[in-house]
């Protein structure tokens, strides 16, 4: 499997002869460029076009995050596998109202399924689980527009997030979900994790013929690569939230890992390292795929979601979103 | 026809016999980088099997290599003889194509791993078969949707395996 590299310290990416190095003040480490698929850069990192050109020869994607760990943008080398046919048909599914709602619904359905899955094991959250089920079952058959769907999803998500207070440590109490900037530690964790998933999904999309800017649930104008937002919906509860629960309940992340000066709204460097490590483990964890009869990692399941969308667009197989069966 | 087309048509002929769905997907540029060992093996095999011969090699894709040898044969190097009919038709197509340009050659398929080679001659029957294959390709690739996936032995080693069955 192609590897993901996370750079959390400050330094420089440098090409010397035919090797890529990451140099910090104290060490110099070579990077196995042939086996790297993407690099997430959190530290303050210098690089020049010589390094960039070399990196792009290998089709490696760079994701940049700012000082607070917010996603800043990605460098994506020129794409090799472009299919005009797929893009045109993807656009047709956006333009046709029914077709667009169908796909948007699929993303939300899977997201809600995974949210409920996260709460199912937790006694403390039972009432919330029931409330989500009611909200969802009552609403889901009466959707006639994307904004109604968004509204329903928003209501479900609010119930979902408010249940966190029941089973997460007290320090991580959440009034409500705040995006940018986060105003408390749990919001900071969610935002950080979501942006990591967003860029991870983007990498998977990049390796397929999908056009990342044509989306269904989110408006294509919302973000440059809004299809990544759509697909992320499925994996945010499945991957990010379960990582957060694990880290907090095992006390691997505590308030110590947040920047006190910034009111605990941002993870500090150590906190980010712990988080990234756990997320990486999760993405590499494999689950037996029943049709393929192979072990597929969580990251692999993201790729499969992209494949399913292509099959949907080319009229091969109607899309049915992932619902973790394990 | 340009070299690029020659090469794509050759692959298409090959895929026509291997899997029609694969042919359709390939014709729509739906391809995936195949990082499997097999591709690597194919490359290595080619590089080390015939180092001395003086050949003008044309890289068809990561799997298929057409060599126009100086002694006047078109050579293909294949990883295994499992896909024999597909391989033969592919070479026949190159021979057919060259013949249209007034160049008559022999074809050779090498299976270095099996230490075997196959010498091919473009007969009128094969010429007919190539023409048929080309029109069938046209028919399949102009379909709006791909032929459905059907499980076959080669699926497991096909670059589309996860796409078709995942
Ligand atoms: S996986 Fe099987 S069905 Fe799919 S393209 Fe390959 S050979 Fe054909």
TrEMBL record, chain A:
Its cofactor is Mg(2+); Mn(2+). Its EC number is 3.1.-.-. GO terms for molecular function: DNA binding; DNA endonuclease activity; hydrolase activity; metal ion binding. CDD domains: Cas1_I-B. Coiled coil: none annotated. Gene3D superfamilies: CRISPR-associated endonuclease Cas1, C-terminal domain, CRISPR-associated endonuclease Cas1, N-terminal domain. GO terms for biological process: defense response to virus; maintenance of CRISPR repeat elements. Mn(2+) binds at residues 153, 218, 233. Keywords: Antiviral defense, DNA-binding, Endonuclease, Hydrolase, Magnesium, Manganese, Metal-binding, Nuclease. The keyword Nuclease applies. Pfam families: Cas_Cas1 (PF01867). The keyword S-adenosyl-L-methionine does not apply. Homodimer, forms a heterotetramer with a Cas2 homodimer. CRISPR (clustered regularly interspaced short palindromic repeat), is an adaptive immune system that provides protection against mobile genetic elements (viruses, transposable elements and conjugative plasmids). CRISPR clusters contain spacers, sequences complementary to antecedent mobile elements, and target invading nucleic acids. CRISPR clusters are transcribed and processed into CRISPR RNA (crRNA). Acts as a dsDNA endonuclease. Involved in the integration of spacer DNA into the CRISPR cassette. Belongs to the CRISPR-associated endonuclease Cas1 family. This is CRISPR-associated endonuclease Cas1. It comes from Caldicellulosiruptor changbaiensis. The gene is cas1b.
